[in-house]
Amino acid sequence: MFTLYTLSTLYTLYTLRYIAVHKPNRLTFPIEIVIRDKHIPLHAITEVLAFFIGFRYFIYLRKQQGDAIEQANRIWIIIGAIFGAVIGSRLFAGLENPAALLQAENKLLYFYLNKTVVGGFLGGLFGVELAKLMIGEKQASGDLFVYPMILALIIGRIGCFSMGIHEETYGTPTALPWGMDLGDGIKRHPVSLYEIVFLVLLWIGLVRLEKKYPLQNGARFKLFMISYLVFRFLLDFIKPHYFFNIPFSTIQLTCLLGLVYYYRYILQPKKLLITT
């Protein structure tokens, strides 16, 4: 399943890039699916598919690999992850542009309409840890979520790419040969495609790493979080954002906050291995 999905994803990316670069008139943003007289944004479809397929994949892995955490506790952990992710994604995204936040008439609506994956991950992490504290669960619980989250992210980022400049997931202008016109006549970094390629490589890397080294329970999730936070910190240098007096965006500061949380494993990666 993994190999087939990886190949199909890479082929889809190649096709989209080829059309965008060589036949731009055939690709307009936002990309829509037309059913009779209805125009449905591809992003809306991929967003639903990301959650559905990701969760189904989680259930599949749980059945195949088993789960050291009993079902009742796992349900509470999932509930904690969902509520934490919803709050975190809105909170950090709402703080991304302080000027726009101050000008918004309805502050709660402004927070609700904005969301970011990085904030969702850190909020979900906090929600899980809080739920585990309340139910007395001491075992690491994140490993089973990693590959389903990567899969869901890949599907979701295809949708983000389909929005072009109509959603703030596009890159800054570039003169590089793979720059794409995302709807405003300017060649830009296709950052959503960059992220998809990174996620596919990260998936492959984690699978190979687990085959080569005996990892502690929870190590897969920690490696995923550290890798993704580093990647997003770097990626945001080529995305248009509001910057403070320091040359970092809110998302980058959020990434740094997450990396500080995992500093022990960054400084001593051997802690992630099972030692005899």
State the gist of this model.
By secondary structure, the protein is mainly alpha-helical. It is built from eleven helices and four strands; from the N terminus they run H-E-E-H-H-H-H-H-H-E-E-H-H-H-H. It has a domain of 164 residues.
Task: Give structural notes.
- A hairpin with a 5-residue loop joins strand 3 and strand 4.
- This protein has a domain at 2-67 and 143-215 and 234-241 and 256-272.
- With 276 residues, the protein is mainly alpha-helical.
- It has helices at residues 2-22, 42-65, 71-94, 98-103, 107-113, 117-135, 143-162, 191-212, 219-235, 250-261, 263-267, and strands at residues 32-35, 38-41, 180-181, 187-188.
- It is globular and about 60 Å long.
- The protein is built from eleven helices and four strands.
- The protein starts with a helix and ends in a 9-residue tail after the last helix.
- The protein has a two-stranded antiparallel sheet with strand order 1-2.
- The mean pLDDT is 89.
